[in-house]
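Question (not urgent): is this output format expected?
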Amino acid sequence: MGNRAIITLEDDSARKHPVALYLHWNGGLESVLAFMSYTWDNNGRAHNDLYTFHARLCQTIGNYFPDGLSLYGYPLSQAQDMSVDNGIFHFRIGKDSFELIGRADEIPAAKRHAYWTNSPDIFASIAEHMPAQKGGA
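Got this back:
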């Protein structure tokens, strides 16, 4: 049994990324929002670029789950009909921020989850799973 969700992305012009992401584990909004926030905060070049952000989000989630069993990609047209525990989280990626479309009222509760409030928080856990950065500019 998983904690499944679908993540879809669009840009400011409502152009949708053609590949939806399926999470088998950590598909609650508290985790999905953390993956999105971590990706946003650590990949400035991905701001306002739908395809780059999608790639960096895949990289963040893939590093967090190195077993390869949690993250899958599906054509957007197929993913819309998938039955998952937590539903679909659809985000708009802009130049200055990202936003959750249609479910933004759920964000305050997600940010009160123990993943966000306990120490170490989920961001420390995500960072721990990222590859070490090499020095130099």
